[in-house]
UniProtKB/TrEMBL annotation:
Keyword field contains NAD: no
Species in which this protein is naturally found: Rhizobium aethiopicum
Domain Amidohydrolase-related: 47-417
Example of a GO cellular component annotation carried by this entry: cytosol
EC numbers, comma separated: 3.5.2.2
Record-given protein name: D-hydantoinase/dihydropyrimidinase
Reaction(s) the record says it catalyses: 5,6-dihydrouracil + H2O = 3-(carbamoylamino)propanoate + H(+)
CDD domains per the UniProt record, alphabetical: D-HYD
Gene3D superfamilies in alphabetical order: Metal-dependent hydrolases (3.20.20.140), Urease, subunit C, domain 1 (2.30.40.10)
């Protein structure tokens, strides 16, 4: 069966032009004028773009005493509804747990996915077993990224020696390390102090994780990556201090990537001074929302290319789950939703305001991450031979975001009441129409795992660091004379 998307304007990361797109099965087979096929999708007045890729989700994740509430079914249905056709979730071994065992758990959950997906593997502890399993994960399991938490002390956090060892292993295997960059020791000590002083509300979560803890950890992760000779990808870059560290490293020739979230780009710290406990707690995530100045820095980074990817860190908890933290902000499950809203919110606040061009929009929502993860042009492209993961984007369709008609399983939306202009007319996942305007036609289990092969890319351009493998011993003749 062939499908033709007719009368639209194709927008990719580098081109805008009028052409039809023909799909046979799950692939794009022809691009050109006046194509015909068994089924026609009308794209008049629309842009035909690569489906979005959200490289940062936590679906059905055990975390802070509970599970995130969107699973692979509701999460990927939400994704498709908003024009995203692939997600990359995190397989998270408990410290001490085998990486392969954790991966099996994630494999089992993901069978319900409505769109294609992949996994990042987290390194939450270090041992010879982890060292060995990393090779199996890369070579046999098709995973080329390892996530490291510099925060969540006593739980997921790894120390610098562990991170250095893991980064060196990544360099050997052609894998890319990912880092949650917040100084977990400082966060833990500030949290304890705030609680002792009676600051137990959700606003104290933000006080415990200022931009400095993120800037420090981002710098540290980059320097450790430089010594290990590997690239590094900083997840949820939320502040100028972190962005500045990334810019500086890139200017030196290092392969360092930064990923702002749609939430940090569009919601600010004033959300935490809302007197409604639930309102503030629903927005508790790490890192927390920042000031307008930080937001401006992130937008500038996307425009100039010093930040490359917009993600969500979709990790949705219901109001009832958030209330585990009444009386103690450190027990509020960290995380916010955004999968369904990332593309419409970024179009509305980026393209419609002139902060991003349409081509930049495609780059930061799809193509750049496809290249970073080594799945381009299977994903992230409108090209013959690419997967038919396509969004037919209607720039004039509007809606007001509301939890009442969202796909996510939770009972609120952090963007509640915000109007967006720019929404999918159709979303196709490997050739199958999953969304037609507001009609949901997703197929549970349609999604397939996307293998990602290793990439050998060093990151040392102007680095001055060189390991001294056999340090020279200085012969000392005696105790030096003291005094003058
Ligand atoms: N931050 C969150 O807010 N939730 C999930 C994990 C994370 O790092
Ligand atoms: Zn420590
Ligand atoms: Zn994180
Ligand atoms: Zn995350």
């Amino acid at each position: 069966m062939t499908t033709v998307i007719k009368n639209g304007t194709i927008v990719t990361a580098d081109l805008t032009y009028k052409a039809d797109v023909k799909i046979d099965g799950d692939k794009i087979v022809e691009i050109g004028p006046n194509l015909s096929g068994d089924e026609v999708l009308d794209a008049s007045g629309c842009y035909v773009m690569p489906g979005g890729i959200d490289p940062h989700t936590h679906l059905e994740m055990p975390f802070m005493g509970t599970y995130s509430s969107d699973d692979f079914e509701s999460g990927t249905r939400a994704a498709l509804s908003g024009g995203t056709t692939m997600v990359v979730d995190f397989a998270l071994p408990a410290p001490g747990q085998s990486l392969l065992e954790a991966l099996t758990m994630w494999d089992n959950k993901s069978t319900r996915a409505n769109c294609d997906y992949s996994f990042h593997m987290a390194v939450t502890w270090w041992s010879e077993q982890v060292f060995k399993e990393m090779e199996t994960i890369v070579r046999d399991k098709g995973i080329n990224t390892f996530k490291h938490f510099m925060a969540y002390k006593g739980a997921l956090m790894v120390d610098d020696d562990e991170m250095f060892a893991s980064f060196q292993r990544c360099a050997e295997l052609g894998a890319l390390p990912l880092v949650h960059a917040e100084n977990g020791d400082v966060v833990a000590s500030m949290s304890a102090k705030l609680l002792a002083e009676g600051n137990n509300g959700p606003e104290a979560h933000a006080y415990s994780r200022p931009a400095e803890v993120e800037g420090e950890a981002t710098n540290r992760a980059i320097m450790i990556a430089d010594m290990a000779g590997c690239p590094v990808y900083i997840v949820h870059t939320s502040c100028e201090q972190a962005h500045e560290a990334i810019r500086r490293a890139r200017a030196k020739g290092m392969r360092v990537y930064g990923e702002p979230l749609i939430q940090h780009l569009t919601l600010d710290e004033s959300e935490y001074s809302n007197p409604d406990w639930d309102h503030a707690a629903r927005r508790v995530m790490s890192p927390p929302f920042r000031s307008k100045q930080h937001q401006d820095s992130l937008w500038a980074g996307l425009a100039s290319g010093s930040l490359q990817v917009v993600a969500t860190d979709h990790c949705a908890f219901t109001t009832a789950q958030k209330r585990f933290g009444v009386g103690d902000f450190t027990k509020i499950p960290n995380g916010t939703g955004g999968l369904e809203d990332r593309m419409p919110m970024l179009w509305t606040h980026g393209v419609n305001t002139g902060r991003l061009t349409m081509n930049e929009f495609v780059a930061v929502t799809s193509t750049n991450i496809a290249k970073i993860l080594n799945i381009y042009p299977k994903k992230g492209a409108i090209l013959v031979g690419a997967d038919a993961d396509i969004v037919v984007w209607d720039p004039n369709r509007s809606k007001v975001i509301s939890s009442k008609n969202q796909q996510s399983a939770i009972d609120y939306n952090v963007f509640e009441g915000k109007e967006v202009t720019g929404l999918p007319r159709y979303t196709l996942t490997r050739g199958v129409v999953a969304i037609e305007e507001s009609t949901i036609k997703t197929r549970e289990g349609h999604g397939e795992f996307v293998r990602r092969e290793p990439v050998t890319a060093v990151s040392k351009a102007l680095s001055t660091w060189k390991e001294i493998t056999s340090p020279r011993k200085v012969e000392r003749s005696g105790i030096p004379a003291t005094g003058v």
